[in-house]
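Comment thread on ticket #2218

A.B. wrote:
> Attaching the input chain for the structure job we discussed in standup.
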Amino acid sequence: MSDFAVILPAAGSSTRFGGLEKKPFTSLDGRPIWLRSCELFWTRPDVARVYIVIAPEDGEVFRARFGHLLLFANAEIVEGGAERFESVANALARVPAEVPFVAVHDAVRPLVAPRQIDAVFAKARETGAAMLGVPLADTLKRVEGDVVRGTVPRAGLWQAQTPQVFRRDWLVEAYANRGQLCTAITDDAQLLEAGGRAVAMVPGTAANFKITTQDDLALAEAVVRSRAKPVEEKPPARGFGDEAEW
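C.D. wrote:
> Ran it. Output below, let me know if you need it in another format.
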C-alpha cells in the first residue's frame, strides 16, 4: 500500500554553500542533488507522492531546467515559505487525508541507503513517529568568542538525520500548534517533542550526511563514485599444484 507521502524541502538560501547555484540544483556526479534525493522515494511502491518544495523565486528556472524530469515521476512542485517550517507546512497541506504517514527528508541529503529508509518507515508504522540519527562520536566544546568555556558531555546525544517520518494526523496537529513554541524550529521532530509525542530513533550511518558546503559536495562525489564502481572479481587462490609463476 502507498501509505507514505514524502516532503523534500529545497527552498533554502544556500548561503553557506558558496557555489554558483543553490545546493539542490547543483550537479552531483552528473545529476542534480535534488533528483538523486527524490529518486530514493518516488520509485518506492509504498510512497503515494513526493512533494518538492522550492523557493518562489526559483520556480520558473526550476521548471525550465528540470520540468521534463518530472513528467512521468510521482512528484509535485510546491512553493516554499520564508522559513523551513513554512515550506514543510505548505507541502503538508497538499497531502491527501487518506495518506496515513508523512516523511520529511532534506533534498540535499542524497546518500541515505534504501535499507535505512525501509527501517525508519517500518518503525514509524510501529510507533507513529521515527527518525534516523547517529550517536555523537566527537567531543563537544562550548565556545564563547574564540575561547573554550567547557566540555559538553556527549552521553545520550545523537545527531539528527532525515528521513523523519510521522503519522500524518500527528504532524498536522504539531504544525497547528507551532505558534506556541518560543524557540527556533530546526527539525520536524522538535515539533512533535514539544507536543508530548515520543519520536523513536533509528540508527543511521555517517554516509547519510547533509550537503552544506563545497567540501561536503566533494565528499559526496567520492561516495557516489565509490558506490558505482563494480567490485572486481578476485582470481581463485592458487595451490602448489597450479601452474603458477614463482
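A.B. wrote:
> Thanks. Noting for the ticket: The CA atoms of residues 92 and 218 lie 32 Å apart.
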